[in-house]
Amino acid sequence: MIVVMKPDASLKQVDHIVTEIERLGLRGHIIVGTERTVVAALGEKRDGAMQALETCPGVEKVMPILAPYKMASSEVKKEPTCVEVLNLKVGAGKIGVIAGPCSVESREQILLVAQQVKEAGATALRGGAFKPRTSPYSFQGMKEKGLELLAEARAATGLAIVTEVMASEHVAMVAQYADVLQVGARNMQNYPLLEKVGESGKVVLLKRGPSATMDEFLLAAEYILKTGNPNVILCERGIRTFEDHTRYTLPLATVPYLHQTTHLPVVVDPSHGTGKASLVAPMAVASIAAGADGLIIEVHPDPEKAVSDGYQSLTPAAFAALMTECRKVAAALGRSM
Amino acid sequence: MIVVMKPDASLKQVDHIVTEIERLGLRGHIIVGTERTVVAALGEKRDGAMQALETCPGVEKVMPILAPYKMASSEVKKEPTCVEVLNLKVGAGKIGVIAGPCSVESREQILLVAQQVKEAGATALRGGAFKPRTSPYSFQGMKEKGLELLAEARAATGLAIVTEVMASEHVAMVAQYADVLQVGARNMQNYPLLEKVGESGKVVLLKRGPSATMDEFLLAAEYILKTGNPNVILCERGIRTFEDHTRYTLPLATVPYLHQTTHLPVVVDPSHGTGKASLVAPMAVASIAAGADGLIIEVHPDPEKAVSDGYQSLTPAAFAALMTECRKVAAALGRSM
Amino acid sequence: MIVVMKPDASLKQVDHIVTEIERLGLRGHIIVGTERTVVAALGEKRDGAMQALETCPGVEKVMPILAPYKMASSEVKKEPTCVEVLNLKVGAGKIGVIAGPCSVESREQILLVAQQVKEAGATALRGGAFKPRTSPYSFQGMKEKGLELLAEARAATGLAIVTEVMASEHVAMVAQYADVLQVGARNMQNYPLLEKVGESGKVVLLKRGPSATMDEFLLAAEYILKTGNPNVILCERGIRTFEDHTRYTLPLATVPYLHQTTHLPVVVDPSHGTGKASLVAPMAVASIAAGADGLIIEVHPDPEKAVSDGYQSLTPAAFAALMTECRKVAAALGRSM
Amino acid sequence: MIVVMKPDASLKQVDHIVTEIERLGLRGHIIVGTERTVVAALGEKRDGAMQALETCPGVEKVMPILAPYKMASSEVKKEPTCVEVLNLKVGAGKIGVIAGPCSVESREQILLVAQQVKEAGATALRGGAFKPRTSPYSFQGMKEKGLELLAEARAATGLAIVTEVMASEHVAMVAQYADVLQVGARNMQNYPLLEKVGESGKVVLLKRGPSATMDEFLLAAEYILKTGNPNVILCERGIRTFEDHTRYTLPLATVPYLHQTTHLPVVVDPSHGTGKASLVAPMAVASIAAGADGLIIEVHPDPEKAVSDGYQSLTPAAFAALMTECRKVAAALGRSM
What we know:
Strand order of the largest sheet of chain A: 7-8-9-10-11-12-13-14
Oligomer: homotetramer
Mean pLDDT of chain A: 94
Number of helices of chain A: 10
Low-confidence stretches of chain A: none
């Protein structure tokens, strides 16, 4: 931590900062510059208590030096992590594709689409049974019945099942049916839920919150890792910005950035990331080109009749065409999928 | 809902939209313009299913007409709601002030600060017992012990207790001690939690998520109202933007906007909204001037030693001075506090 | 400047940084921490060349310490600046009010509204003669004819004239008629224009760009100040964020923030800052409460027939009522207007 | 344009809207819904005057139907435009690569790097002679001397010259030396400059402003097209968001979105779009995969000694490696470069 003093800070104010730094168990190091004095705190802890020094007289700002996460950091584990369950392999060179409808709507729908995405090359099936909906008047999901249908689709196709869990009290139930527990963007900082899914031992797909910074995202992953569960897949799904021609802004630079800072695999969700079916395919291909370890894509047998997210769902045919493009790009870059 | 067709849309494509609108139980009305055709859906429902028509051939965009919330709307209930508990009165002309530390740290701390904020004019005490912290390495709160100390502070001062509840499984416990259940910004779209706090019958202080639109904010309130609990206080606490000289951007125009669209009271949190102690007072006064029904402010007996949020906490003396300013401005505008 | 090395940076890489720092005429100071090494550059210059060290091997990031502006800084001039022209006084305790239509539309319109805003208490008249319009198909202003009408309105009322100049080649002409040259938000970083308005010697009203940080805003002011012209008024007019219930987000915390960092006066434009007539008054009052040195407000004799910005213009009666509220709040806070 | 009335709007208020619509030369069409009445304006013009109806009593909101641009629209010209000058071909299937340093620094530097980028496959050379710098204390460019050196580099390599013009008064001079006039992000809405570069007849590279919407971007292009100059290249270079791990957020979905809405070619600038050398290559490859018609990339013979933008400049070797990757991905997708 670096404490930058104001230009007119007194010696006494500088001394006070050194005293406070030592009270926190660190060592203070004073650097006298030409315009202002700076105090470096050596032996820095990551708990944020030092930030309070910003209210001390004579202090201009407090700047952290260390990244606040540990177990997620590529400094701690240099080799990239590959997360595996059934045929889904994500990370360390492997590209996994998770596809399926926003919501499980019926037995026919989910069995049909599972077959279709499998044939096109998906290795996991997504489908919402518990749906977090912005409006209380929207369809809230088929709940446990939906989970049963997902399990039936797995039995029929061998695809791993990825589904969202919205509440701590449902973790045990969802974990009975699903292979991957998805924590949705709205719940990225629902810490009790993060701990519960961590403790379940299941693979966790953690979606970035739409206004989360990279540090916040990795600290959310750290909550899961701290439970002893190493199987975390990060998912970029778009952020809230002023752009209004897409539902969210999909910032693909997070993919190479995360590859430099964490060993965890990173998948991209171009369906939510754009919110428009016509933009999903080019952004999916771009994700692979940017180095993504996987994709999660909404596919529906008949998007215009979907009960949710129809506007951003691909038809099975469009998805199959997209898979072909992705495989070509992956191959061109020396990767396989 | 208005469906805007592309300029080259065929008659058959327009007909298909009308058919789909009727399948959803609405009535379609075609308007042929000079450049393109538009189809209005009459009898609109609020469940969002129509949005899927955006994937139909020939459709350019689908534009909703109705606000998606009902019970929170000032169209449904024209007179503003006043939420009351003990001496805290918020809304319909009453201004309530909630003050106290970020975290309950000790018996001495919370009893001292409760007395101090009461003397300065606060009508409720805030203090975190369960703390949602960005980092798992940060102080997580005193938990039930903290709740007991808050109840003791209420007994000593008569202040209403406002404290955050982070998890559905804690609602019953927190409701035993607190007068107002706070749903934090990170949990604004934690729908199971919203339903649980609604069902508790307690007053709920709902913080705006840092990237929530007004519609999303009011729909989150709607989740609570739908349980039959009318006692919801909305709280603007700042949004995520590109600004980096404050921790969040505090958009006070939400206060008059919400007063035009909802009957629910609106309080402002200038502590989180700025993240800098030196900016809290002017923004608190500005909030009152903008018509806010209340304030929630972090006050700590010794901010530089606070275990959390010290950088944005006022000293008791600064808080007392601020209350004086706020009272003057409220009086100038014909309101009392 | 602080150069933070990666945890595995070699001694040679650290030495290279020190060498580069010295090549730039500064002095390097190595601090060996428990997790990583940091190099402080003493005698820092403000030209940004050091930022390039981020590409050196072993470097994690480069963090500036100094604010990049000088002449605008309150470190250089502690007492606040009051900018004056005719009866318009802005800053150092004085509150100035600039009001008038978006565009000068006709002789009748501008003379009428000038009289109306003067009676209500404005000390300057705004009105666009050269209009920067998002669309080339929109009304582009009356140009020099508009300037003549503004001068006539000054002659009739004594109000100072504030009008926008969009192009370097118009500065001389506009300066002939106007008292205050406005640089619009779109031109905040049009550096040749900033220099030209600076050299004109006229008072300059500099609007914040909708995505400008405070450093960028103050550096734009610095371009003007560097020409020797000290008469710069800063204007907060709202920023681009994800919010869609207002045209821009108006972040009033910039007012106290700027008062802490610069001696220049700060006025607020709640018309553009909200883009909705119904929100202008509460945000104007809130601006005064936050400490603003002035307001700039769109007023039109008949907003629904305005050729531009009608949706955010007040009627003269609404403006007069607003002035009364503002005066009350200013008085309550010990200021006069 | 659709005018949505409030639920309690009176018949008289609806009639007033119809009258106003007819005053503007349009035709009003009333649609009575179950919850509120809507008035459609047929024969819509694009000049924005109707927006003022939002201030009329009884009106809730005014929603435009038509895109505000014409000549840039793919509705007007369906086949994609290819812009060509010397060996640079951009659009309609052709991929052009523009590379070179942020600033022209010396004869040796620019001639060397021109040779290097040409060998790697670039078809145009970028280099700043007039530099818009955030700080007045930063290097402002070599000005006309820099232009001469660029022309010399063209003579030596055959590369087309792309360089920024910052001021209307420099257009003639810059046009003497350059093949493509770049309008920088800060000047995207500098309308007099847009008109001047349009009138020059030169190819124009128009960079998106960091907070510009797609409509604003295309309307800026429309200002150029309206002068009769059809040779406009759009450039996505990143937007301002809350993200702080990159200098800007690079939203690649603009590429396919623009391909659907305009016939103009779209290039991407991953150097400014990320602001970090280590992220440039993956984002360049992703841009090609997303369908970009070209790239503009900062390359410097010795980035750590660059006088500007060193932190985001590639070495010539890194650039050559990147070109190889891009060619592979383009080939995989059936395109050549």
